Amino acid sequence: MEAKTIRLVRRGELVSVGNVPPERTLLELLREDLACTGTKEGCGEGDCGACTVVLGEAVDGRLQYRAVNSCIRLAHSVDGMALWTVEDLAAADGTLHPAQEAMVQCHGSQCGFCTPGFVMSLFGTYQNHVCKDEPVTRELAQEELSGNLCRCTGYRPILDAAQQMAQLPRLPVDEQAILDQLATLQPEPDGGGYLAPRTLARLLALRAGHPQAQLVAGCTDVGLWVTKMHRQFPQVLDVTRVAELRRVETYPHHVAIGAAVTLTDAFAALVAERPQLKAFANRFAGLPVRNSGTLGGNVANGSPIGDSMPLLIALGANLVLMSERGHRELPLEQFYTGYRKNVLAPDEVVAWIKVPRPIPGEFLRAYKISKRFDDDISAVCLVVAMHLQDGLVAEVRIGAGGVAATPARAVRAEAVLRGRPWTLQAAQRAAAALRDEFQPISDMRASAAYRGEVLGNLMQRFWLESQGATQINLENFRLEEAATP
Q1: CATH level 3 topology of 4-182
Q2: What HEC string does the chain produce?
Q3: Adjacent-strand bridge partners of 384
Q4: CB 297 within 8 Å of CB 221
Q5: What is the per-residue pLDDT across 14-29, written as a single tens digit (0 to 9) for each?
Q6: Residues 216-256: tens digit of each pLDDT
Q7: Which carries the bigger pLDDT value, residue 366 or residue 190?
């Protein structure tokens, strides 16, 4: 393995760390190389949030702040960025940052182990909302802290602290100084163990020349191979710096989402046109995972319990695969050939996800069933997109997750509905077809029988919502209403 140097901006200074192997995590870099032990290791899989840090990146002349999990983030992926850890927030004279002071005033720390991660998520909230004079509602606070777990169950005072920050004296970041410093960090030439091309042409050339390199696009799953399976990679090919693949482009009939677009930005683009997906998007892992992970990476990974694929299948999304030989396009459901297997050639990459724009009369619902409402993996995922015309099902697409070896399209259930009147009896027939179409397995998340039963129940729930029922799911629960004395 050939190690390379990492350069970043921290505490107003340029920091350089040499001889960093390609599979080293950001958490290891912080704790072992930089002695930043305030950042904690909890789960080692991006679930608990104790390791949360905030990254700053120059985007369109502004500094973009993102809270991320350092335990599953590869260290080299932050080369050329600004970094904040919990040690970096207080002023030089010891004055606490509002994120810290609010936690003190609201008694938000109990055992204290999770506190650094919560403080960093609060810092991200502060920079992205308070500093822009945007109110931090109770609902927004819950969304912003969704990737952090408190084993002492102290959430109420921590949510209080999120809202209290705006009441404290401002402690702004000198963004221009950081932007000037970042501008001095010119990208290093591609080579060595960690390849991070900046252009699509260079990515395709490297993919052709290094087909054995491990592709990463956010690393929220490959990171687990490092932390849990102790895998080492002689060479890593990171797609997240490719400028062309970091864009969301809107066309008359579809939205093209680049494979390097973060899940946060990809879901924002989808929710902008389909607001009913907001709760579903917020429940995709926690915010730090969505800030690192990419839609292209989630699709290419192909986990049968990944939530984005059933949604994209139901929306009729196509994938654009590219290599130096050219490109090809295919429906997402045709991409998978088996458990975590796909049709990608050794020299190909997933480049874009093309999502059709909504048509008038589209009725869309996305359902996620998991043991925990926030920050959890699905036991069952079902997404139904239906277009009715004169009471008939003119078109319907159904995507399912957690019920087969791959994300799947429920073609038999669709056939039961297509061209027929949309009635309770039709919904019941579709529910039965769904239960017959898949043979799910039993695992730690749910039994096969439970998954089959839930599939059918969700179709009946879809029927009820199509008839106007609203108070039948937690998506309509509002935290602020519950918090009102």
Answers
A1: Ubiquitin-like (UB roll) (3.10.20)
A2: CCCEEEEEEECCEEEEEEEECCCCEHHHHHHHHCCCCCCCCCCCCCCCCCCEEEEEEEECCEEEEEEEECCCCEHHHHCCCEEECHHHCCCCCCCCCHHHHHHHHCCCCCCCCCHHHHHHHHHHHHHHCHHHCCCCCHHHHHHHCCCCCCCCCCHHHHHHHHHHHHHCCCCCCCHHHHHHHHHCCCCCCCCCCEECCCCHHHHHHHHHHCCCCEEECCCCCHHHHHHCCCCCCCCEEECCCCHHHHCEEECCCEEEEECCCEHHHHHHHHHHHCHHHHHHHHCECCHHHHHHCEHHHHHHHCCCCCCHHHHHHHCCCEEEEEECCEEEEEEHHHCEEECCEECCCCCCEEEEEEEECCCCCEEEEEEEECCCCCCECCCEEEEEEEEEECCEEEEEEEEEECCCCCCEECHHHHHHHCCCECCHHHHHHHHHHHHHHCCCCCCCCCCHHHHHHHHHHHHHHHHHHHCCCCCCCHHHCCHHHHHCC
A3: 365, 398
A4: yes
A5: 999 998 999 999 999 9
A6: 999 898 888 899 999 999 899 999 999 999 999 999 999 99
A7: 366
48-74 pLDDT, tens digit each: 999 999 999 999 999 999 999 999 999
Same topology, domains 4-182 and 362-474? Answer is no
366 pLDDT more than 90: yes
192 falls in which pLDDT band (50, 70, 90)?
A: confident
**Topology (CATH) of 194-356:** 3.30.465
Per-domain residue ranges for the chain?
Answer: 4-182, 194-356, 362-474
CATH class, range 362-474:
alpha beta
Mean pLDDT, range 331-358, rounded to an integer? 97
